[in-house]
Amino acid sequence: MGAIVAGKDDDRAGVAGDAEPPGAPGPGDTAEPGGTAEPGDIAEPAHIPEPRDIPEPGDTVEPREIPEPGATPGAAGPSEPGDVPEVAGPSEPGAKPGPPDRRARIRRRTRRVLFGALILLCTGALLIAGTGYWAYEHYTGRVQRIPHAFPTDVPADALPPPSKSGSQTFLLVGLDSRSDLPTTGNDAEAPEWKPGAQRSDTMMLVHLPADHKHAYVVSLPRDSWVNIPGHGMAKLNAAFSWGGPPLLIDTVQRLTKVRIDHLAVIDWSGFRELTDAVGGVDITVDRTVSRRNGPGGVWTAGPHHMDGADALDYVRERYGLPNGDLDRTHRQQNFLRAVLAKTLSGGTVTNPLKLKRTLDQVTSVVSVDDRLSDGALRNLVWDLRSVRASDMAFMNTPVAGFDSIGKQSVVLLDANGGAELWEAMRNDTMAGFVATHSLDTLGSRVS
């Protein structure tokens, strides 16, 4: 039942290929016109107003710290979309969560980040094709970091080796916070990153081959029944609630045997704001399905123009869907691609004010691990400048079926099918894997 989902050619979002590379002229210069435009290429605006808050030479921007999460289990809330399941306790004998090492207070105004898996691709294109080198430096330099995101006490035999080919794998985490205060990005107001306060509602592995010509996005169902180190069997999304980024990374690496090179975290409320910044997205619902929030209690079949609030309800809904959590991951993938296409549309790129507003919004809601340096981020954005939506493949982790364990509805992963997928990711042979496996194409019509 493992569904593999590929991007369609009719959803292309072009990226200008003649933009200035790193080391190009500085602020005030404009890119020279390129050659004959390819279908989907973005028109380059002549100028974009310089943001008022660009640091002056010599200024320093103090990075804000997000405290290292502890591993204390958090109590599960009501059975709402995104809730962490209630777990009686660790399944492994003697396993006890330890107290957090420290809890640093979060400062409000800090450096911002430019990365969010698919959002990275569209934003990188915007920076290079639409704004000029000064903005490229400005936005990639305002980076917020998550300190101590990776586990430090993992046995050597449980730590996957780095890629030999030069490929990279990112873990993208979409948070559903139990607090009304934002917990990621430059507007974070929650005073502490407390165990149990955030739930990893969405988890995706984004694999970038060594040539950086494609991207492969693999969704990990939040209800996957997996072994969480120190806790035993539980739903995958409990790992982040119990132990933050380190425990989630450790869990995913042990599950897949794939080395995670970097982490990108975004609160879903950030996607709501980004959707509004680009003027909403258009998504077609192929059949009428129930809707827990919103007018009428249903999503009617047909096209919908969704603002941020509608889009957030759409991607978080899982009740009433035939395949539950799997259908929801399809919705999330489709929504991300719709945001990508809308962000790369001419109406955004050729409008300086709208472009700046979009870039400001993207860079204000995403956080990455502190291993991703400014220089590495700039190089990555540059390398990905020519990647289009049609160069990305979306897929779900292979699934064997569904079950109820205690009072929890869980997803049972397909160990054999997953082994093939993870081997291809480890060996940087994802192109061959996609070509030789049955594809469930993700079009624009996703319920």
UniProtKB/TrEMBL annotation:
<protein>
    <submittedName>
        <fullName>Transcriptional attenuator, LytR family</fullName>
    </submittedName>
</protein>
<keyword id="KW-1133">Transmembrane helix</keyword>
<keyword id="KW-0472">Membrane</keyword>
<feature type="compositionally biased region" description="Low complexity">
    <location>
        <begin position="16"/>
        <end position="36"/>
    </location>
</feature>
<feature type="transmembrane region" description="Helical">
    <location>
        <begin position="113"/>
        <end position="136"/>
    </location>
</feature>
<feature type="compositionally biased region" description="Basic and acidic residues">
    <location>
        <begin position="47"/>
        <end position="67"/>
    </location>
</feature>
<feature type="compositionally biased region" description="Low complexity">
    <location>
        <begin position="68"/>
        <end position="82"/>
    </location>
</feature>
<feature type="region of interest" description="Disordered">
    <location>
        <begin position="1"/>
        <end position="105"/>
    </location>
</feature>
<dbReference type="InterPro" id="IPR004474">
    <property type="entry name" value="LytR_CpsA_psr"/>
</dbReference>
<feature type="domain" description="Cell envelope-related transcriptional attenuator">
    <location>
        <begin position="199"/>
        <end position="343"/>
    </location>
</feature>
<keyword id="KW-0812">Transmembrane</keyword>
<comment type="similarity">
    <text>Belongs to the LytR/CpsA/Psr (LCP) family.</text>
</comment>
<dbReference type="Pfam" id="PF03816">
    <property type="entry name" value="LytR_cpsA_psr"/>
</dbReference>
<dbReference type="InterPro" id="IPR050922">
    <property type="entry name" value="LytR/CpsA/Psr_CW_biosynth"/>
</dbReference>
